[in-house]
Amino acid sequence: MQEPFFSYVPGASILHRLDPRTKIAAVMLLGILAFRVENFTGIGSLFVLFFAFASLSELPMKVFLRAVRPMVLFMIFIFLAQLFFTDGRAFASFWVLQPSLEGLDKGLKLVARFILLLLFAALLTASTDPSAITCGIERMLRPLPLRWLGISSFELATMMNISIAFLPLLFERVERTKAAQAARGMDFVKNPFHSVPALAIPLLRGVIRDAEELALAMESRGYQGIRRTSMHELSMQKRDWKALFILVLIAILILSL
Description:
- The chain is mostly helical.
- It has two domains: 1-129 and 234-257, no CATH class; 132-231, no CATH class.
- Helix content is 69%, strand content 0%.
- The chain has ten helices and no strands.
- The protein has helices spanning 14-17, 20-36, 40-57, 61-68, 72-85, 101-127, 130-141, 153-183, 192-220, 238-255.
- It is globular, with a radius of gyration of 21 Å.
- The model has no long low-confidence stretch (mean pLDDT 83).
């Protein structure tokens, strides 16, 4: 069976050996940078930077394409919404819809930014073990005064890690539900309005059941939401500081373009 997207792929590359906090901070910086650049030159530079990181990770491109494929319809929708509903100079006319040059510019930039976010997130999850991500997030959040909010850094990191782990499982369940409904005679093309509840209701029921089973499994194993020891003893090495320093320099260079 095909591996779900946003899943960890074991390896021994340079990115695999970096501290998870380094990679988390890098993805946060690159995500902010993706929405800060205002021209196609900066966006193109970020794509070049991604391909450079992908080559360093020694992972096949299909790992990253799997992360983008489920969001294609959503990105087409936001592109068309920007194209037809942004005021500006119209370059064509389709009945009452008039696509504008400004809408085309905004649509392409917005779609490119979403693709960059998905690619950098896939790069993080594919090169970092989920338990290491949890440990890295917990260590980064530990200095914050989260006790005033009634939550600990360990609980917050655990919730974020569970969300990341459940995302590929959610889309895998969508595919299974679609296949099951198609086997029962449901045509998703001819009956789009009838297929939505036929897909959403069993999907929601399955997600709730998975959440209940996970809660019971965690409770039976004695989970109490307090900080525990970890199999990952994190320690920032010289290569981590060098990687962050180089990334900051690259970010400043891209912003200056």
